[in-house]
Amino acid sequence: MQASIQPIFTWSKERIFAGGARNIALLVEWKGITAKVEYQKRSRKVVAREIELRIWLEPHVKFSQSYGCRVEAGEGRSLLLKLGKLQSGQRNYVVLEFTLTAMPAGRYEALWLQWQYKQRQGERIRELPVQKLGLEYTHHTSVLEDSSSFYVEKHLELLKTKKVLEDAVELRKTGQLLLAHEKLRRHADKLLLLAVRSGDHLLLKEAEILYRQSEFVLQRDNIAVGQIQYRMGLM
């Protein structure tokens, strides 16, 4: 039976220095499979619900933080992500950051992952096969200068936008309007820089909206936190 969700995992870097690394990011992407009949009808029904992703960490891997979802500590060295439901054709994203300790040069397993979900209410849980993700450790210092994946960096900055807006709201509540304004502008600057480097229109659009929002902080009584939403499925 065909799975209802299609997962994709992308590291910010495929090779890291053997001396260890901080803030290595993993982009977790999952898409709702669209049946041919549904595609012809252009319908978007819920294809998976109560989605959970369980992640087991190897001893040399330590979880740092997440963007786009809350992460619960599971049994042993495991993490649990509760990701809700998914419609056909919909694409969702989460970024997880890890710290990796020093290891001899070579390729090592880093994470083991398994998806669970239900297709309908009351249905038994379905499981996808366990996947393993590895990383290469190297003594070549050139790896320290390797740039991170633009695709991962793009989604990481987009996922940070909601948190930036929430922080700005809290600053405004305490009367720190200038700090709220500057926080929004700094994040808009990051999005704009990425947009200029890549020519990505979504990043440019989000930066423009955020710049306008930063100006409103000094002029309006309220910031609508949900005004800038991460538009899933447009990439």
Give your account of this protein's structure.
The structure is a single chain. The protein is α+β, with helices and mostly antiparallel strands and 235 residues long. The chain has helices spanning 36-41, 150-173, 177-198, 201-217, and strands spanning 5-11, 15-17, 21-32, 46-57, 61-67, 71-73, 78-87, 91-100, 106-118, 126-127, 131-138. The strands form two sheets. Strands 2, 4, 6, 7, 9, 10 and 11 form a seven-stranded mixed sheet that branches. Strands 1-3-8-5 form a four-stranded antiparallel sheet, with helices on one face. Helix 2 packs antiparallel against helix 3 and helix 3 (177-198) runs antiparallel to helix 4 (201-217). The protein is globular and about 50 Å long. Residues 221-235 have low confidence and may be disordered.
Proportion in helices = 25-40%
The ordered H/E elements are EEEHEEEEEEEEHHH
Q: Which structural class best describes the helix and strand composition?
A: alpha+beta
Largest sheet: 7 strands, mixed
Number of helices: 4
- Measured on Cα atoms, how large is the radius of gyration? 20 Å
Low-confidence stretches: 221-235
- Topology, number of strands: 11
Percent range for β-strand residues: 35-45%
* Span between termini: 28 Å
- Average pLDDT, rounded to a whole number, is 87
